[in-house]
Every structure is written in C-alpha cells, then in structure tokens.
Amino acid sequence: MKASVLVFPGSNREGDVAQAIELVTGRKPNMVWHGDGNFEKTDLIVIPGGFSYGDYLRCGAMAAQSPVMAEVKKRAAQGVPVLAICNGFQIAAEAGLLPGVLMRNENLKFVCADVHLKIETSQSLFTNRYQAGQVIKVPVAHAEGNYFADDETLKRVEDRGQVAFRYCAPDGTVDGTGNPNGSIRNIAGVFNETKTVLGLMPHPENAVEAMFGGTDGKALFEGIVEALS
Amino acid sequence: MTIATEKNPPVKLPNEPVITPQIVAEHGLAPDEYERLLKIMGRSPTMVELGIFSAMWSEHCSYKSSKVWLKKLPTKAPWVIQGPGENAGVIDIGDGQAAIFKMESHNHPSYIEPYQGAATGVGGIMRDVFTMGARPVANLNALRFGDPSHPKTRHLVSGVVAGIGGYGNCMGIPTVGGETNFHAAYNGNILVNAMTVGIAPTDRIFYAAAAGVGNPLVYVGSKTGRDGIHGATMASTEFSEDSEEKRPTVQVGDPFVEKLLLEACLELMATDAIVAIQDMGAAGLTSSSFEMAAKGGLGVVVELDKVPMREQGMNPYELMLSESQERMLIVLKPGREDLARTIFEKWELDFAIIGRLTDTERMVLTWHGDTVGNIPIPPLVTEAPVYERPWTLTPLPAVLVASQVPAPKDWNASLLALMGCPDLASKAWIWHQYDHLIMGNTAIRPQDGDAALVRVPSSAEGTGHKGLAMTSDCTPRYVQAHPETGGRQAVAEAWRNITATGATPLAVTDNMNFGNPQKPEIMGQFAGAIMGMAEACKVLEFPVVSGNVSLYNETEGRPILPTPTIGAVGVIHDIAKAVGSRLTQAGLAVILVGETQGWLGQSLYLREACGREDGAPPPVDLAVERRNGDFVRSQIDASRLSACHDLSDGGLLVALAEMCIAGGTGAEIALPSTDVPSHAFLYGEDQARYLVATGMPDDVLAAAKAAGVPAVLLGYSGGAALVVKGLVSLDLGDIKATHEAWLPTYMNTAE
C-alpha cells in the first residue's frame, strides 16, 4: 500500500502517522507539501493533525483552500480513501468532504488524554479489523473537537451508518462521562456517505506500540492495509 | 553608503534627547556603571548606545551579581560537549547523538500577563535549543504560585497553564513533566521556569561564535515590532511624535511562526550554509549580534533600516531593544544567501541581509547610511560590572525531633488530607492541557513515574532504542530553611528521580530564582544554595551545563522562597528496561531502600497537619545518596523491579499511596521493628530513599545486603485498599478521589 501524508504549514502530527504507517506497512509514506496540487498516485491520503496555518481564522479553514486540497477532493470523489485525523478532520469538514463541524471543546480547554471509543461498525475499510461494539483506548489531543451537526444532517449521518466511533466509558456505556469535548451524541469520528473518507478526532497513530500508548489503534492501520492490498 | 568605522562618530537623530542622569537611571545603570560606560566610549553615548549598554549590563544578560558564584559549579564531565555560555548545554548520549537542553525563567512577564508571559517563555527556551541544531523532543516546566486563597492565584494558574499549552501544543513538542507548588511567598511574584530538551547529531551542532570577515549577517523569522522594549517607554515616547501610546512590555508569541522557523532552521542546518546562529531572546538584536561578534572576536556592521519592521516609524533604539519573538540571526557562508533565502521563503518567513562581519571589533549601527551607534565590543564584555555582593549565610535551624511533633489522631484522615493538599494533589488538570503524547515517543507520562521518559529513536538501524529521562526539582521550603542543604537536596532529588526510572543521570540545567541580591541575606541564600548544589553535582558526577538566573523576585520588599530549580537529564540505553512508579500487579513485594530516621523538620506533614514550617530540613548525605541510587539502578538494569518511586514530599506513606492509585493496585504493609515513631517513619522526609516493587524480593534483598544498602521488606501489593497494619486502611477509590478533586474543584470555583 502506498500512502501519502499531506503537510501544511503548522502540521505537527505528520511524523506520528508516518511512523505508524511505516510500522504497519514497512514502508515510509510519501510526504506531500500543501502547495503540490499534482502529487503522485496513491492508495491512501492522510490529512494529519496539527495547527495548520496556526488555526488562524478557524481550524482547518485556510488549509481547506490550499492547492493540495483541491486535488484531494477530486481524488476522494474518484474513491481514493482519505483518513483525516484531528486537524485533518477539521480540514476535511471545512472542505466539505465530511458532514458536520468541529467547535471549541465544551470546557474551552485543550485536552490531551486517553479516551475510550466504541466501534460503531466494522463495515468499512478503516474499521474492518475491529468488531462493532468493541471498545478501544486511544488518546485525544485537541482544543476544538466538539463535533456538531444540525438535526437534519445528524439524522442522515445516523440513518446511513456514517458514525464510525463514539466516545464511551471503559465498559462501553455511551454517556457524558466518556465524552472529552462535548461532541453531540458522543461522536468521535464520521465517514462520508461511501465510507471512503474517515474523519476522527482521536489519534490512533499514537496507540500502535505497547510501551508508547498501547496498541488499540494499530488495527485501524492494519485494516486499511488489508482492504487496500 | 559610507563605510562606518570608529572614525565616524554617530550622528544625532531628530528629537534625540540629551542624556541626563534621570535617563541613565531609567535605563537601570548605576552612576558608577555610567562612568564606566563613558570611559569605554570616550564620549557621551547616543540613546541607542545607552540602550545597548543598559541591556548588556543588565542583571539578566551580564550575570553581574551571580557570576562569581556560578563559577563554583562543576561544569565538566567526559560526556559534556558544551557547558554554560552557549544558548544551551550539550551532552553526548551515545550513538552519535547529543541531548541539548536548558531551563529558563519567565517570571515577571508571566505575573503581568500570564498567558503571553508563559507562552513566550516556552517559545524562548525552545529557540535556545533549536538554534543549536536540535529538534526539541520534550518540554518541562516548574511552576510556583501563591497561596490558593490569594485572589490572583486562580487567574494566574489558568493563564500560565493555557499559555504553556498554547505554545507547546502548537509547536508539536510534547510537554512531559514538571512540578507545581503553591506558597504564600509567591503571592506577588510567581515563578514560571520552562525547560526544553532536544536531540541533534553530535557532528551537527551549531554555535553562536561568528567567523569570516565579510560574511553576511542574516535576519530571519518574524518582523520586529515595538513589543517588549524594557525600560524604553520613556525613550520611545521622546523619540517619536505619538508619545501618548504606551506599549505593553510583555512580548506576544506566535507559536505558528515559531513552528515554521523551527522547520526552516532545521532545513537550512541540513545544508552547509551556516557559520553561526543565535536566537534573538532577551535584549533581542542587541544581545544576539553582540554575542556573535564578541564570541568570534570580530566586529559587525548592522544596517538597521534593513531590519524587517512590523510597523512604520520605528527607530534604531526600538529596533535594537525590541524583544519581538520568533526571530533568529544567522551568519552565512559567502554565496549561500540564495539557498537560505529559498528555504525561508518556502516557509513564508522574512529573510533579510542586515549586515556584515568586520575585523574592527566594533559594533557599528547605521540608519539609512548614517552611523547612529559605534561601540567597541571587547571592553563592553571585559569591563562589564561584576559584583561581589555582601552575603550572610542562613544558619542551620534547630533539629526538630519526632517527639516534638504530634502524631495524627486519625491516620486515615491525615493521609487523605496530605494527598489532597495543594502541593501533593494531582496536577492532572494542568498536564491534560499539555499535549504530552505527540511524537509518539512518550514512555512515562506525567504522574506515572518520577521522571518523564521519552524514546530517542536510534540513529543506527537494528539497534534498540534509548530513553531520555527528564525531571525538574526543587524543595523551596528546604532552601529557605537552610540554603546549603536545600541546594544539595534539589540536585539529589533530581538525580534520584532520573535514577528511579533506571536511567543514568548525566547533567543539570539550573534556574536560580531568588530575591534582591543587594540584601546580604538574599545573596547569602544564593551563595548557600550554590555551595550545596556544587557539592552535590560534584559527588554525583552531575555537571551543570546550562542555566539561568532570575533575581529581584520580590514584591514590596517581600522575597520569594529561594528556588534553585534543577532540570536534569539522564539516559537509559535500553528503554525496554525502564520502570515507572505505578503499582500494576498484585503479589509484588514492596521494599523500602535507604535508612529512615524520621526527619519531620520542614516536612509537608509538619506544615499541612500541624501548621508549622520550622526545623532543620532533612540532611543530604551525598555518598549515601550515590550508593543507594546506584544500587536501585543496578536492580532495574537486572530487570528485577516492576516499579520504583523515590521518597520526597510527604515521605513513605504518600509515595506508596501515589504508587497504588497510579497503578490501580492496593498494598498492605507493616512497619518494621524500629525506634522511630510511626508518624515520623511514615511521613518523615529522609533523603536517599526509594520504594521498589519486585517479584524477586530475595534477590533484591541479597543484592542490597551485598552493596551495604539498607533495605527492608514492608509488605505486598494487592487488593483495592492501602493498608498499614494497625494504622491506615483506605480504599484506593477514596484516596484517588481526594487526590484528584482538589485542583479542578479549586479552578472551577468562581472567585
């Protein structure tokens, strides 16, 4: 599998996700500069975490207008899978690749902590190595991860099974206790309609090694490799 | 433009005031210091020249009160590549890699404007590290706030923490450790000490010494604005038309620009274009250009009109003294200008050639072709004021014996009260606001060990990974009671915390926070602390490689507790062998390493349970410290320990409670037969002690005996309660709830 990781001015978790991809595939991904509207053919596009353009204006708003994102939109429409993590999720939402928006955390503070996620479906190229209902532990690190969508969008997203992950308690209970940022219906990650684009606030790339945050995130990358090979 | 030399005396700028004794005083120069200046210059200075002397001879830049004492600290070891005097210290950590690190204070700005003060403190220390060629891999911070009941404390905690997080998180450098204390002595003067550790190849380290007459001097980063011009309010108003406008003296940080600057600098450093590089920190362009030329034994011409400016109408004085953030000064090899410009333009940063190196040993400043400043460089350094200020040592207070301190009436309540007191309560509310996981290398997170531990990816393929252990420590109440003991203890505790992970402590950065050095008792605190630190650093082979001095930490004549914060770094060659302090499995033997006499003087128990802050602090026997620590490290290296925790604030019982709640496993222990009263045994703060958990108690105890190290089996892990037979029995849930409740409850309480 050939992966490409986008790099914007202010991206800062591109190395983490590149490290995770290399660990799972044995191959370094291609790093794509934001000004490159014509990057080489790739099996997977990753939009990494960080503070693209310093989060100025609005998280992800400026990056969403970059040359590379015009190309990403085109390729996503052709079915090239896109994994958008944290700031990447914010960028993808701003670019219209995913439904909903990400607002300031409910308590207005940055939060870096392990959270528990309930896998909503195993029926996607991103989650095929998990089981529906399974609970995994991965970290979050963001100030603006409070997912919101209007009622109509939310209904559509739920009806079509586009919710990928929900924040939950360690035992899988989905309620306020496990929700780190106030996201509506505890939504931590969503798919596009075709489930070829996944956006999520948590960082599975920081949960791929036992000594460094656990291994619950590794299956996400393994699942992608399996689906795309 | 005419070539400016010493033959061109500076021209007066329009509206340039005549230098009066008042203007001199407002620049912080004493009358005899001004006499010195006149002797060096041979004439009256211009305003910009006066400003330069004022900055270079300030306490902050010149270390004039502390220099004679700092010289007493040991700074050498075979693994030290660069000691004090550069932007940061450099040590060899093996495999062709170096750790580059320093700690620096941003106390006064953080008190005035907590968010920006703390943020720019973090930004500044990171620049000190990456200017030497290192990619920062970890940040730590040591914070001291006033009494929680003081009306400003909550606001300061909130702003400082948000500022540290705001900057470090955006930079993408994990903030992995630190400490936070509260004491009324910091009510009017908080301490914000920030530390950065970076990694560089040993053959790619960059220094500040300029070389090569004619080489271009290049300015990169943000534009220069009017922020942070110290003591310059008066001068800038007299210089310009709109004198009404008062500018804040606290700088404003932009971590996004610094992130770009970091990447651009590292990209340029991978080429062969750089001769020397220096960040613009305190005193901005003045100290950076001055230090580069001085260290290289050269002169420099700076064309100030070429400096990228944020606003119109700025003058030479403002440009030389601005402390605008995210700027660097670089000496390039000739012909590499275009290469460098391309890199900085790619990162959308300013790039300007603002001058050249000369052989005149003078700093010549020009402004649209006119010379506006012309200062001989060597005498400004060699004839800088150095003070041997009078000092009085603090006498050792009387030793407090355990019988003079009441035992708790209710043991359970006493432990809960300690675990929930401001100094010992969980600081999770703070470190959850710091990204401590980014880069994917954090092996020991805050609260899970005595030191933070991050992986250093090995430069060589196929070898195991090293770990870098880092900590910051100081027990100001010990230093206040007896500075020599306190200085010794701060170093010893940092050494112990590194040791408790299994790493070998290698070197120290010190951040000396004290009151007004012109008071003999304050200077005596400084002197005493240095004596203690020097002795500890020597015995523990733990040299000081970088540091920072912050004096005049007083408000209305009331000084802070003397706080020599020790930042320390160690290495473990196989990170897989490292241990944290969490007790995660049942059935492990809990062994106390080290001797317990029951020192309650200056203990947290004495302060929190008895409302007293008196007595002598626990003595530090450095030979014992070393022997016990080396033993513990050997047991970790032999993979015999599952967890290890040093005993410090709160003593044995607090340490055990911390191990239990961090790992979610209880323990049951019994006191060994001893003459020491129970409360002194359990809450005493004797030094050189560790609690270790092991599945091989016989081996550990036998090894301890062989090494001559006192070690005693106290009990075993297991269950969901902490039990000390006959004294304490508490559910972990209750301890944890009390421990975790204080700070969030405090912060969420409306003022």
Question: Which properties best describe this structure?
Answer:
heterodimer, A: 229 residues, alpha/beta, two-stranded antiparallel ribbon, 5 helices, 22% helix, globular, B: 751 residues, alpha+beta, 7-stranded mixed sheet, 35% helix, disordered N terminus
Quick structural gist:
Chain A has helices at residues 14-25, 67-77, 87-94, 151-159, 218-228; strands spanning 3-7, 30-33, 44-47, 82-85, 101-103, 111-119, 135-142, 146-148, 163-168, 187-191, 197-200. With 229 residues, chain A is of the alpha/beta class. Chain A has a single domain, classed as 3-Layer(aba) Sandwich (Rossmann fold), CATH 3.40.50.
Elements of chain A, N to C (H/E): EHEEHEHEEEEHEEEH
Global structural class of chain B: alpha+beta
Spans where pLDDT lies below 50 across 5 or more residues of chain B: 1-5, 231-247
Number of strands of chain B: 28
Termini of chain B, distance in Å? Answer: 61 Å
What Rg of chain B do the Cα atoms give? 27 Å
Morphology call of chain B: globular
Q: If you average the pLDDT of chain B, what whole number results?
A: 93
Return the CATH topology of chain A: Rossmann fold
- Number of discrete helical segments of chain A: 5
The CATH superfamily of chain A appears as Class I glutamine amidotransferase (GATase) domain
Q: Find the structural class of chain A using helix and strand composition.
A: alpha/beta
Principal-axes shape call of chain A: globular
Top CATH class of chain A: Alpha Beta
Q: Based on the structure, what is the oligomeric state of the protein chains? A: heterodimer
Name the chain pair whose interface involves the most residues: A-B, 30 and 31 residues
Number of helices of chain B: 25
Helix fraction bin of chain A? 10-25%
